[in-house]
Write a structure and sequence with these properties.
With 179 residues, the protein is an all-alpha fold. It has helices spanning 6-16, 18-26, 38-48, 53-67, 72-77, 80-86, 90-105, 118-126, 133-142, 155-165, 173-178. The protein is 62% helix and 0% strand. It is elongated.
Length: 179
């Protein structure tokens, strides 16, 4: 689902910023969309950390099949050995189980997020092992569809800003925020 603000945001950004105008015209069908529920989105984020998209998809497929239903209670109860058999590293298996436990016990309460500020959600999520600030910021953008998030620690985003705004020269986090 595309957020209500998306068409106007694209138009406003294209009007105000020549670099974004060029990119929006070049990629007119690029839309912000969400998929899946919060738990599965965060599980996928953990699965995909520091591996290729293809490897992550393969592991996710085996994991979903082993779980039957990727729900917090069932994942929390899965033995680490089963997760390892799906292709998880030992660390990622523990991270996914910790995430599942946080959801299952109510330590993480997704229903509250609609009423919470971005920074409060980030604090809520980074308490889960395997979720850092970058993952939480990506979640804010791509799952919660929050419009004013700038993940300055995102290497791809930084490189793109350097290329498009600064002739490929490095930018500081403060300069990225200013742009």
């Amino acid at each position: 689902m595309i957020p209500d603000y998306w068409p106007r945001a694209k138009a406003d950004l294209a009007r105000r910023d020549k670099v974004l105008r060029k990119l929006i015209r070049k990629f007119p069908d690029a839309d912000l969309k969400t998929r899946g529920d919060a738990f599965q989105t965060l599980c996928r984020s953990i699965v995909g950390q520091q591996i290729s998209v293809k490897a992550a998809q393969s592991i996710w497929g085996r994991f979903a099949e082993a779980a039957g239903s990727v729900e917090p209670a069932g994942v929390a109860a899965m033995p680490v050995e089963v997760l390892r058999g799906c292709g998880f590293s030992g660390q990622k298996a523990l991270y996914v189980k910790d995430l599942a436990t946080h959801f299952h016990t109510g330590a993480v309460k997704p229903r509250r997020w609609a009423r919470m500020a971005d920074e409060a959600i980030i604090v809520d999520l980074v308490r889960v092992k395997g979720i850092g600030r970058w993952t939480a910021e990506m979640f804010l953008i791509f799952h919660l569809m929050r419009p004013d998030v700038l993940p300055v620690d995102n290497l791809g985003g930084r490189r793109a800003m350097e290329r498009e705004y600064n002739d490929g020269e490095p930018l500081t986090k403060a300069e990225m925020r200013e742009l």
